Amino acid sequence: MATDKKLPVSRRGFIAGAGTLAAGTMGFPLIGGAQPAAVKVGIIHPVTGFVAYAGSQGRFGATLAVDDVNKAGGIKSMGGAKLEPLLGDSQSKVEVGVAEVEKMNEQGVAAYIGCYQSPVGIAASQAAAKYNTPFLIDVGASDLLVTRGLKNVFRIKPGFGACVDQGISLLGDLNKKANGVAKSAVIVHESGEFGTGTAKLLASKLPSIGIQVKEVIGHDNPTRNFDNIALRIRSAAPDIVMMSNYQNEYVLLARTLYQQKVNLAAMYSILGGGFNYKFAKEQPDVSQYMIDVNHWYNPKSEKALALKKRVEAAGKEFTFEVYLAYTVVDLLADALEHAGSADKEKLTAALDASTFKAELMPYGPTKFVNGQNEGGRAEVMQAIKGDIKVIAPEQFAEMPPVFPKPKFT
What we know:
The protein is α/β, with parallel strands linked by helices. The protein has helices spanning 11-16, 52-71, 94-106, 118-129, 160-177, 193-205, 227-236, 247-259, 277-282, 284-287, 302-313, 320-339, 344-352; strands at 39-45, 83-89, 111-114, 135-137, 153-155, 184-190, 212-219, 240-244, 266-270, 291-294, 368-369, 372-373, 379-384, 387-392. The protein has two domains: 11-157 and 300-373, Response regulator (Rossmann fold); 161-294 and 379-396, Response regulator (Rossmann fold). It contains 13 helices and 14 strands. A seven-stranded mixed beta sheet has the order 7-6-8-9-10-13-14, sandwiched between helices. The chain has a five-stranded parallel beta sheet with strand order 2-1-3-4-5, sandwiched between helices. Strands 11-12 form a two-stranded antiparallel ribbon. α8 links the parallel β8 and β9 (266-270). The chain is globular, with a radius of gyration of 22 Å. 51% of the residues are buried.
């Protein structure tokens, strides 16, 4: 077991030395053509367990980005050093995610990327903090990830707080334009940190736009049958069902409500784990007119559209796990270029000062404040005829929203 268990160095301490980053390495050729040491990157996702599909998508996006960085010449400020991915499977379990961090630390990783699930990311990044190792969150919605005072954690995407605020604002606008057709809601959420935290925020903020919360229903992971929950929803007779859960439960709940023909003005999710092209294509009738506030690529970006084609040509779906993991690898590569070193303190300082442009995403310039990128934002999408289109913000919109959705006959 490694013995280098220093306390996390403060962001201010890192930044104080940032002005001299890479001063001795930038632009100098390697002597004798020696290959520089690879930069080891720990990539941890749940590729087995109940969210294995999403975890596998994240791993695919991360390794695709690593290949692209290496094919483009590696980290040029480090003499062309390649990224070397160390792949870990959290198995959807907190303790396994922590064990992967410890194992990879012994192998000399310079940074970690992960972990899809918020509880795993919270524990794994805490473990990485013992070694002052940067931990880049690709997917993980809980704001606890960046509010614990850890100096090694960086999240480029917005968390559930920002997504809920944006989602509530848009729902209020939609409802106002529809003459206030929606007056009540039921919230359904997975019982972990992600779903519970999101549901609490939704329940507190829906009354501000004139929507009464009739019931908040939690469910376990995994849940194999939603018949009883569907009956509770039918009995409550809400205008809107709001969902925050992972892939399998998200799709199963939507299918159950469709099969039971529960009439709603909208199924409106915040960070819906199953709202993706796979769901829209495989179950177009079930997904039709569903709305989700989530991480999505920039549909106006040529780089994003080109990557989408590559991913689909490889037989994969272009889900948010893919392009968020890809983006985080690009962020790490950019920070390594600026640091000119895989030294953990220099790398953390470079991340802290990053102005990385996430070309795949609808983001402004990166600006980390206590590890959270203030330039990130969600988009709002709607499923339509087996496809998914952005409906907000306006500058990225591909179609106007359909709200309320047509009733079952």
